[in-house]
Amino acid sequence: MSSKLQGRELYESLGSPKKIVAPMVDQSELAWRILSRRHGADLCYSPMYNARLFGTNETYRRDNFGELDGDEKIDRPLVVQFCANNPDELLAAAKHVVGRCDAVDLNLGCPQGIARKGHYGAFLMEEWDLIHSMISKLHQELDVPVTAKIRIFPEKEKTLEYAKMVLSAGAQFLTVHGRTREMKGQQTGLADWSYIKYLRDNLPPNTVIFANGNIVYQHDIPRCLEVTGADAVMSAETNLVNPAVFSTNSTIDNEYPRVDKLLREYFEIAKETPGRASAAAMKSHFFKILRSFLPHAIDIRNQIGPIKRGEYEKYEDIVRQVEERVAKVLSEEGVEDKVTNDGEYKNVPYWRCQPLFRVVDGMASNGKITGKRKATDQASEVSQSEKMAKVEAQDTIPATA
C-alpha cells in the first residue's frame, strides 16, 4: 500500500532505534517491555504469536495481547511478531493489531522442535515461494508495514539470495540472526557477524538491517554496529538476565543493577500490568533476574517454584526476602561491591545482574568461549576489510562475545 511508510523512512519515523528487545515466546510481554524501555531499549518486539490461533481464537488473542499492549503512551514503538505457514491466516491475525503497532514481523528464525512440528520459523527456510507469498500478502493488503527475522544458511551467497527474496516480497526491515538453524541447545555456538556484514555490503545501501546474536555486555552493542554495519542491534537472552544491557550509563548500578532493586522494579510493574501474559511470565522472569543469586539462596529458589500465576503476595514475599538477603550480604565485613576484569571478561558480584554466555561446544564457561570468540571476531574482521588494503587490515577490532 503506497500510503504506508517503507524502509529507511519507516525506520526514521520510529526514531532510528539502535537497541531492540527481541521477540521471545512468552517473555517479551508488556511488563517486560516497559521495564526494558526504562533501561534503554529503543524498540520492542512482542512475543511470537501463533497466527492461526491469534486470528481465530478470541481467548488466545485476549490472553496474549491485552488492553494496554501497543498503547501509544507506554508501549511504542512496537513490532508484533507472528509465526505462520499460511498467507491468509497470517493476514487475518495481523489485522487484529493494526493501529496498535508500528509493523508486523514474520518469524523465520525459530529453530526449536515446536517450530519443526508446527512447520514455521526456521523450518520454512527452504520454502521460498511460501515465504514470499506470506510477506507479499501483508505488504499488499495490510495497513501497517511488514518485516522479517531470519537465520543464516551455511553459505553466505545463499544467505544473500534468501535475504534478497525476503526483501523483494515487501519486508521493510531485515533482522538477521547470525546462526544457522542447527545452532541451538548444546550446539548453539557463537553467531557469525561476518554474515551480517556480508549482507550489509551486498544489499542496497538503504536496506534497514538489524543484527542479532553475541550481545553480552553493553559495549558489545556499539561494537556490533561497527563490525556489521547494521542499523541496530537486537538482544534476547542477555536482555532477560540483565535488561540494563541497553543502558548507555556505565556506572555499576546502571550497567549491572543489583538483583534486589531490579526485581522490585519489575515486580511493581508486572503486578499493575493487566492481562494474563504478564502474570504468566512472572515466574520465568524471577528465575532469570535471580539467575546468579539463587545458587547462593537455595531456600528462596525452592519457594519460587510452587508459586502459581497471580499469587502476587507470594511473589512480594520473595522480593522482600531477596532485598533482606542482599542487604545482609553487603553489610558483611570485607564484601566488595564492584566489578573486576578477568582478561576479556568481567567478574560481576552474584547479587548483581550478570552477562549471559551462550553454550559453545557444549560448555557455557568463559574460558571455553575465549578462543572461539577471538576466532569469530577475526572472521568478521576479514569480511569487513575485504575491500581495504592489506596493511589497513592489520588494525584489529576488539573481540566480542
UniProtKB/TrEMBL annotation:
InterPro entries in the record: Aldolase_TIM, DUS-like_FMN-bd, tRNA_hU_synthase_CS
Cofactor dependence: FMN
Catalytic activity reported: a 5,6-dihydrouridine in mRNA + NAD(+) = a uridine in mRNA + NADH + H(+); 5,6-dihydrouridine(16) in tRNA + NADP(+) = uridine(16) in tRNA + NADPH + H(+); 5,6-dihydrouridine(16) in tRNA + NAD(+) = uridine(16) in tRNA + NADH + H(+); 5,6-dihydrouridine(17) in tRNA + NAD(+) = uridine(17) in tRNA + NADH + H(+)
Record PROSITE patterns: UPF0034 (PS01136)
Ranges of compositional bias, category Polar residues: 377-386
GO MF annotation list: flavin adenine dinucleotide binding; tRNA dihydrouridine synthase activity
A GO BP entry: mRNA processing
Key words of the record: Flavoprotein, FMN, mRNA processing, NAD, NADP, Oxidoreductase, tRNA processing
EC code: 1.3.1.88
Domain DUS-like FMN-binding span(s) in chain numbering: 21-325
Location of region: Disordered: 368-401
Family stated for the protein in its record: Belongs to the Dus family. Dus1 subfamily.
Protein name from the UniProt record: tRNA-dihydrouridine(16/17) synthase [NAD(P)(+)]
